[in-house]
Amino acid sequence: MKTFNQLVEEVRSKVKELFPWDLEERIKNENILIIDVREPYEFDTMNIENSINVPRGILETACEYDFEETISELVEARDKTVIVVCRSGNRSLFAADIMQQLGYKDPISLKTGLRGWNEAEQPLLDKNNHVVDIDEADDYFLPKIKPEQHSPR
Predict the structure, then answer these.
(1) How many other C-beta atoms lie within 10 A of the C-beta of residue 64?
(2) In the chain, where are the structural domains located?
(3) H or E element in which residue 106 lies
(4) Is 38 buried (19+), middle (13-18) or exposed (0-12) by CB count in 10 A?
(5) DSSP-assigned letter for residue 147
(6) What is the pLDDT at residue 73?
(7) What's the whole-model pTM score?
(8) Residue 104, exposed/middle/buried by CB under 10 A (0-12, 13-18, 19+)?
(9) pLDDT in tens, 33-78
């Protein structure tokens, strides 16, 4: 049996990643699509400008025509660079791996996720397109593990 961290490392070896400062540069200079694979409530709280929300749970059908979840902009992006983001850079690794399997030419995971994007002092927007205060974002991204979620000692 593999642990979550082992699975992450296995997938990491197959997927391209880039750091937040590299994404900032690519946004300025390239025609890329940014998809955020977090849940809608997470996306509404804060997201990267012009990114689209494609929750991880519907990614496969969002990438194909003829499904209720189809996102045509995503289906038509098979030959372009698609940057995949999430909170910490793990869900985006799995999503980019699936996208490679579905024939996407250049899916890239944002290493360190939106936490790293915020730490690099890049702007995040709320659902009303207002800039989120960097300190509020820091608090939001802090892990909040409950006692019952810790492994037995």
Answers:
(1) 13
(2) 4-120
(3) strand 106-110
(4) buried
(5) G
(6) 97
(7) 0.94
(8) buried
(9) 999 999 999 999 999 999 999 999 999 999 999 999 999 999 999 9
At the fourth CATH level, the homologous superfamily of domain 4-120 is Rhodanese-like domain (3.40.250.10)
Go through the chain and tell me how many residues it has: 153
CB-based burial label for 23 (10 Å; 0-12, 13-18, 19+): buried
DSSP string, 32-100: -EEEE-S-HHHHHH-B-TT-EE--GGGHHHHTSSSSTT--HHHHTTTTSEEEEE-SSSSHHHHHHHHHH
For residue 53, report the phi and psi dihedrals to the nearest 5 degrees: -90, 120
> Measured between alpha carbons, how far is 130 from 112 in angstroms, rounded to an integer?
23
* Structure tokens that stand for 86 in this block: 């999430």
Q: Which residues contact 132 (CB under 8 A, 6 or more apart)?
A: 45, 46, 123, 124, 125, 126
Helix (H, G, I), strand (E, B), or coil: what is residue 107?
strand
Helices 4-12/91-101 angle, 10° precision: 50
77 near 50, Cβ under 8 Å? Answer: no
What's the CA gap between 150 and 153, in Å, rounded? 8
And the tokens for 36? 């955020």
For the chain, how long is the longest CA-to-CA vector? 50
